[in-house]
Amino acid sequence: MASLTLNVNGTEHTVDVDENTPLLWVLRNELGLTGTKFGCGMSQCGACTVHLDGVAVRSCVLPVKEVGDQAVTTIEGLGNEDARHPLQEAWIEAQAPQCGYCQSGQIMTAAALLEANPNPTDDEITEAMSGNLCRCGTYNRIRQAVKLAAGNRD
Amino acid sequence: MAIQDRNANTAISRRRFVQSAGAAGLTIFWSSRAAAQEATPGNATPIGSPEAGATPEATPAPQAQQSPFPMEVDAYLRVNEDGTVTLLTGKVEFGQGIRTGFAQLAAEELSLPFEAIQVVMGQTDEAPFDLGTFGSLSTRLTGPRIRQAGAAMREWLFELAAEQTGRDASGFVLENGKVVATDHSGIEIPYAELAAGKSAARELDPEVELKSPDRFTVLGQSIPRPDVETKVDGSAAFGIDAVADGMVWGKIVRPPAFGATLVDVDFSEAEAMEGVVGTFRDGDFAGLAAETLQQAEAAIAAVEATWEEPATATTHETIFDLLLETAREGEKLGDTTSPADSVDIAEAISDPLEVTFRAPYVNHAPIEPRSALVSVTDDRVDVWSSTQDPFGVRAGVAEVLGRDVESVVVTPQYPGGAFGSKVLPMAETEAARLSQAFGRPVKLVWTRHEEFSHGQYRPAMLVNIVSGVDGDGNISGWRYDLYSASYFPEGSDNANPAAADWSADILEIYSVTARTVWHQSDSPLPPYFWRVNGATTNTWAREVTMDMLAERAGLDPVTFRLNHLGDNSRMAAVLEAAVEKAGWTPGVGPTGQGIGVALGFDANTYVAEVARVELDEGTGEIRVRHVDVAIDCGLVVNPEAATHQVEGSVVLGTSATLREIITFENGRVTNPTFADYAPITMREAPSVDVVFVEDKTDPMGGIGEPAVAPSTAAIANALYDLAGIRLFDIPFTPDRVLAELNKA
Q: What pLDDT sits at residue B111?
């Protein structure tokens, strides 16, 4: 066990965990931030995607000791009912989710994309999003939602 | 109670259910053989859908056998003090939109705004019993009950108003939460004042007068799904998210292969590890729990188990030999449904076309693995899980614990995908046993490896079709032989209506002389329901053969189909709508356009799909660019949600067509990761356009599954149209495409 201080969604938290615990489970089980999902534990589905200093990473394979002082942003930190991120608004407008389980990861991947490329083409969206699986098959609406958030209404 | 006993009981409950439903006058056709035999060619009778329900585990509750579905209005609708109405249903929401659609149905009949309907779903101590959420049954079967309950409540409100005012009950209408006198006397009484807290004391009447479509204001509107708002900010509660005070983490000792028995288990190292709260073994079931997930993972890795494995030679490559070798000669259950039942149709066809189709085992692979939290105490058991079947979970947990069903309360959470994988109680019963053993609430989350390796699978299927065309370009005969395991356990009556035979009977669509036979075979892996079950394979086999026969007849595939639809006008209408949307250009044989059509019929819903594909002849990679879907599911409750279901159906169907196969040998799944199983991503997903063909007076059909079924066939026919090659093995991998291209 190790005592670690994490900056998550703008707040400092001190946790007492095995330092090799994946960040995903620290977020979910220690901090109660269950919006970030477990899908595979092998960085193959994208459900666990969060940001480290604005960059999308797979929290299921990231030992918490490697986070250091980088700022962690989860879906809860991106926005909420009272102040939604434009992507969250766009996701609602496009009615993108079905079961919704993969969508936190999808939105976090999309948010990192728009940070780096505020006006992506369809192909650029597809390339950026193709590491995030959705078994309900909502891919077309996800692409549409990213475009809506980027201000591209075609 | 032994498993076998439960199966026997279930057979009884299933028959009773059919009787009960029939007695209530509901138009429901379960796919009993009798129902199939009553079917006539090409008509619009809803046949052939052995609704995935009535699985043994789905209906074991004794009270369910007596009364599968409550008929009391009170069980479905209650007026609250604040003027809202609570709608109760045993169904669960997993993104298909029934929370929204059901509320629309109730709001419409009660002349309330959508927002005035509060919905309670699946909570077993509040909601009415339900068989489970599967088989595209929710809107189709529960939807009418909700409308009937709403209409009955409307009548009741009129009676209450009449009683209070001394007027005639016929002199009132409902307007936005108030019972209003029609004589302009100004009398208007809020529902709550009349009915809050009271019992309607009446039963559903299937003959009750429902609101007519021309007066709809809520039903038929694309009302945004309220659940979506909670699914964009992480606040939606899924099964995996449930927590309880004092909770510990469970892990199960898994067998190395299906059918293995546990000889010995050594927990000594695990028991000495930090955080471990206990270990447990009962027969082949062994597990442990620890204070944290990481401690449980470390402990389970330290368990030494010795298993005895059965000899299993069959692999994913030799499975089709097994299907043929183990086919039960005496149990040909597909039956004859044509006038030619006394002759062998195949023998009578001159210049026959014989084609064999093979489909592999596939996995559901929902992104959320099976997850449950169970708290067992002396007098009560609480279960939180992402299940499609809360009442089945209640019964399953009660059984493994030896408890009374009523002492178990299941609170369903959102399932993170299911597709048939979250019907049987699995993580729930495992967690329950550990919780009972250790006296703590136990949380159990399956790993991805467990999900791929220890669940169930849509079983492999082999279809052989012998057919031909006569000199007039018509089908001269159709002999259809389907080989597959039953989706139900061996020995139960439910082995008869196998889900493998969904859509197998060509007479559900076309008017031809035909014989369809299902041969039950063995399965080395546990078979189970998977979104639309055997219908995808059957539809693929039928619709590809239709294209091959069309070419023989020298006809365009659309014309050839229309020629064989008889009086199936709803199917003809969706076919014509789909080809119009797609801009179909007629042609005989490969036209090079890469366009293909297929028809499907499931859950009383008519579907036509037109796919457009491209092919990289260097890599053999098929790219499905676009699919146009025309669909007639009767009255559409929420067009946007229904469209979403069709889009997802086509994407899942495309994934199964291009990518999905469970490989196995020695009783082990050999590709138990997302990387190996490789469902399609956004890159491979086709765009989808949906056209509804709708007569609002038609009954509500299913929408969750029907559009999955024709997707493989439409892609296969488009590939042939483009490149002149046909693949008779799913999935259509680049290797298989290249092999065919090299032959051509």
A: 98
